[in-house]
């Protein structure tokens, strides 16, 4: 896959079982605006990781796609996603939402798509500050359920990955009193027009 030259350059890149994962830093200057907005958002305990963990719901709030595409954060995300496009395939968003986790929450490992779909998940860490000791990492696993990569929250950090990579967001540690906001935009792969 040859990246599009208009795409954002990644800070770090991984490949897990042949599937891409890229981290982008420093592209969202107004992180504090998003954090303030999320502090007022109406979260509901409706999100589940996988069907067998359905009794353990976690907090989320949805954003309509019509509103998403008007936000500067979407423009940055779309430029990063360009690096995953090819002549044959592109991506379009189909869902956007924010999760919030605090100490004591239980989050479960999962995938975001089936292996043959090759959808992408763009995950933003929305915080004004994050301390290493607070935890909250997103762990990514290989086919043997070994940790293949860990991405820690940082203000305005974006990680984009193939949705078939098993992953889990870890809740913050006891000493963290800040919410762990992650804003996810899901992209489905689609054939490029001929």
UniProtKB/TrEMBL annotation:
Q: Which domain of life is it from?
A: Bacteria
MF annotations from Gene Ontology: dioxygenase activity; iron ion binding; L-ascorbic acid binding; oxidoreductase activity, acting on paired donors, with incorporation or reduction of molecular oxygen
Which InterPro entries does the entry mention?
Answer: Pro_4_hyd_alph, Pro_4_hyd_alph_FE2OG_OXY
| Cofactor dependence | L-ascorbate
Q: Which UniProt keywords apply?
A: Dioxygenase, Oxidoreductase
Lineage summary: Bacteria, Pseudomonadati, Pseudomonadota, Gammaproteobacteria, Lysobacterales
Q: Does the keyword field hold Ion transport?
A: no
Protein name, please?
2OG-Fe(II) oxygenase
